[in-house]
Amino acid sequence: SESRSSVLLEPFIHQVGGHMSMMKYDEHTVCKPLVSQELSFYQSLPLAMRQFTPQYKGIVSVHLKKDSLGNLILIASPSLQTESCGGCLDNSSSDSSVRIWHRHKWATGPELPLVKWSHSQLTKTFKDSCPGKMLLRTDLQYCTDPLLEDANGNKPERKSHNPWGLHCHRQHLNRMSSKHNENKLHQFLLLENVVSKYNYPCILDLKMGTRQHGDDASEEKKARHIKKCEQSTSASLGVRICGMQVYQADTGHFLCKDKYYGRKLSVEGFRQTLQQFLCNGNHLRTDLLEPIILRLKALLSVIRKQSSYRFYSSSLLIIYDGQEHKENTAALDNHLHFQNTNCTTSHSTNHSRVDVRMIDFAHTTFKGSKSNPTTYDGPDHGYIFGLENLIKILQNISEGK
Question: Which family does it belong to (predicted)?
Fold first, then answer.
């Protein structure tokens, strides 16, 4: 019933961390609620940093409404855009992004009965619409396993997905519906979907730096963030795990960890989880270590040159494809077993495609930012400290230490 240019936003199923809901706009674009400080960052992004951030694609207007069944949905209206994004949106192709949620069937894994989800179930409590809210807080979790049915009733390959994005989406819809009426237009940022090129995106979300609160934080929020840093690896390493999904080739599921898991980790636990992120259930993906380390070193070089920038509360994503290239699945070179993982190691001369991206700049400040008058001198030493430790740990894993 929507006009041809309207897009029904869907929860972004590969969101592994954060609390703000990321929405899928189309195959190559995600969107999130606009925060002026983050917009200011993207609009004045230093050239050297662009390869390490999602491409900014503009702003779109979004409104909350109820569909014919009374379910809450979010509709993006490209025709109501408040800022041109240089022809990055093709309205004629937007139709493919308008999904009919009611045709989707979702399953909850092999050990649980098949559940048909209508969109109305998204408006119920998360506990009702996912196999247990406590699933989010378990140390080891194989998550919901959707079978998305297309218009012809065909079911594509079975994949498992991280429940975190749906959890954030549910909370976001509740917040919006309680605070605003349906007619209110909200502005959303349009950003590159940095995992769209991967068949089975393995994602590690790392909260970077020794300080997480922004300059605008209340005393209560400031104290809360300081405590989280002190009680986690943020203080000792300058980095902590905020979310993770790793495709397990032996089961066909994603292994997922959330921010609650990441906060509890010791320095050794952090190292072991990094190793687990590189394990596909059969072996350790040693072919990924060198390209990841090289990309992190390139980022480190760029960050050291960014005077006045403070990336408070931002995250760093490390991404690779869980679907290995054939040359990487050849006979294993050796059978070293690592503590706390069932992985042997596999070596390959061919580097797999990896990516490293900085995200979430709502609390980033820099000289000239309209949103934040506070200015700092020199680079972000807390961020640099975290990157240096991350590189060091990965190098140790690479050397078998």
Answer: Belongs to the inositol phosphokinase (IPK) family.
Among 42, 43, 114, 34, smallest CA distance to 76 is for 34
Evaluate whether residue 100 is within a structural domain: no
Lateral strand order in the sheet of 105-107: 114-115, 105-107, 145-147
Full-model pTM: 0.77
Among candidate residues 60, 2, 5, 3, the one with its CA nearest the CA of residue 30: 60
In a domain, 336, yes or no: no
At 1 the pLDDT is 38
With respect to residue 365, please indicate whether it lies within any of the assigned structural domains.
yes
CATH code of the domain in which 43 resides: 3.30.470.160
Q: Dihedrals φ, ψ of 272, to 5°?
A: -65, -35
* Burial environment of residue 281 by CB neighbours within 10 A (0 to 12, 13 to 18, 19 or more): middle
pLDDT of residue 312: 95
Number of domains in the chain: 1
Q: Going from the first residue of the chain to its last (401 residues), give the mean pLDDT of each consecutive group of 10, the final group possibly shorter.
A: 70 90 94 94 95 96 87 83 40 31 29 30 34 31 36 45 82 84 87 95 96 88 91 94 94 92 96 96 94 98 96 97 70 42 51 87 89 84 97 95 73
Domain contains 203: yes
pLDDT of residue 345: 53
Which residues on neighbouring strands pair with residue 191, listed in sequence order?
A: 30, 56
| Cα distance between residue 121 and residue 241, in whole Å | 30
8, 75 contact by CB (below 8 A): yes
The token duo for 186 is: 């909200």
Take residue 396 and report the two structure tokens written for it: 């140790």
Residue 72 structural domain? 7-81+161-325+350-399
* Degrees, nearest 5: CA angle 55-90-52: 10
